[in-house]
Specification:
Blueprint: H1 2-28, H2 31-60, H3 66-69, H4 73-92, H5 96-122, H6 124-146, H7 152-171, H8 177-180, H9 194-217, H10 220-231, H11 234-248, H12 253-283, H13 295-321, H14 326-348, H15 350-378
Helix pairs in contact: 1-2, 1-6, 1-7, 1-11, 2-4, 2-5, 2-9, 2-10, 2-11, 4-5, 5-6, 5-7, 6-7, 9-10, 9-14, 11-12, 11-13, 12-13, 13-15, 14-15
Length: 392
């Protein structure tokens, strides 16, 4: 249990750091610059999503050997692809300095994340110390900007790239050999991770493509607004990951079956709480410009977030029972969000994105609910013989 507490603390620090960094970017960039920052960041999110999801199963039931797997070739290849595509953004985005920040910071963030997973398996306290160091750097950068010691753009570079770089030095306590340990990985054994990687990439790619469509259909400013409204819910999404690890490794089937409902109720409570906070902040005229959106936009995204929580809860259960079943259900969500983004954003801009977000995750959650009910029915006991061959 102490290990899980350290993992939960590490996720809390990571969530706070990511939240503060993106909020810093929204406050000091704003407009089209923040839109470009969000677009480039979501591109490197493809790499992080695949790497994290491919490690979740093994992190929940860890072995020391997995410290090699978390730096497997898939991560190296993904970083290279993201860097190449990120460089391509320079050809289409006028706010190039922001994209360059991510081309520098992206590989550092991914490497930090992989080494952090190795530390979580071997010595969780080292991972916590690394994330605490990163958080301190972000706070120091923001404070320096407020005090006039650093320019806003320089401070953002320090937070985005300097934070993970500082964390890497702390993670060096685990030994730099873990950086090259991926060369010893048996790629045939890694094939079992393909469903998890594909599932994570489908979701992350859908979000990236959706933001890219928003930027091309409306503007980078609207894309920044879309990232801003999603940022409101980022703490819940990040913190729920710690609970996800507990569920994946749990032997309590009742707790596992209840997990989708727990996620739904917790997300609803969070949405109500954060909605009240935003209402008070708007009344006091103390909200950042990236959160200057209407109540309809918030309600639509909140509905999507509640559906997303249930959606993810069922995904977590499927990861234990039927990993291959993840892909068809996730594909429905990806197709819907990509198909709806352009027409709705063209018609209503930010509200159109919020509507797309809400509808897509609601449909995805409905598909997951149907699958959950179908699986429950298929595993129900029968009296004498099993009818049919059990295929679907």
């Amino acid at each position: 249990m102490r290990r899980f507490q350290l993992v939960a603390l590490d996720q809390a620090l990571s969530s706070a750091t990511n939240f503060a960094t993106v909020l810093l970017a929204g406050v000091y960039l704003g407009g089209a610059d923040f839109g470009a920052y969000a677009l480039a960041g979501s591109l490197f999110g493809l790499t992080l999503a695949a790497a994290r999801m491919s490690s979740s199963e093994r992190l929940a039931t860890p072995t020391r050997d997995h410290a090699q797997f978390v730096l497997a070739p898939i991560t190296v290849v993904a970083v290279a692809v993201a860097a190449i595509v990120g460089s391509g953004l320079l050809l289409v985005v006028t706010e190039r300095s922001v994209v360059i920040q991510w081309i520098i910071a992206g590989p550092l963030i991914v490497l930090n994340d992989r080494m952090r997973y190795a530390a979580l398996i071997r010595r969780p306290v080292v991972a916590v110390a690394a994330d605490a160091t990163w958080f301190v750097v972000v706070v120091a950068a923001w404070s320096s900007i407020e005090l006039g010691l650093l320019d806003g753009e320089i401070g953002l570079i320090v937070a985005t790239a300097g934070g993970p770089a500082a964390g890497l030095f702390v993670l060096a306590a685990e030994g730099w050999r873990s950086v090259t340990a991926w060369t010893a990985v048996d790629l045939r054994a890694a094939r079992s991770e393909v469903p998890y990687i594909a599932d994570a990439w489908l979701q992350a790619a859908a979000v990236f493509i959706s933001l890219a469509v928003v930027a091309s259909t409306a503007s980078l400013t609207v894309a920044g607004g879309a990232r801003g409204v999603m940022l409101v819910f980022q703490p819940f999404v990040s913190l729920s990951y710690a609970g996800r690890l507990l569920i994946i490794g749990s032997s309590d089937e009742r707790r596992v079956r209840a997990w989708p409902t727990i996620m739904l109720v917790a997300s609803l409570a969070y949405s109500i709480l954060i909605g009240g906070v935003l209402i008070l902040a708007h009344a006091a005229d103390s909200t950042p410009s990236i959160w200057d959106f209407g109540r309809i936009t918030f309600v639509l995204v909140a509905c999507g977030q509640v559906a997303r929580a249930f959606h993810q809860g069922v995904v977590d259960v499927l990861r234990r029972t039927d990993p291959r079943g993840l892909l068809p259900a996730r594909l429905v969500f990806a197709v819907v969000i990509v198909a709806l983004t352009a027409p709705l954003v063209r018609r209503w801009e930010l509200e159109g994105f919020a509507l797309t977000f809400g509808v897509s995750y609601t449909i995805g959650a409905a598909v997951m609910w149907w699958r959950k009910r179908r699986d429950s029915a298929s595993t129900a006991p029968v009296s004498d013989t099993v009818a049919g061959d059990g295929s679907h």
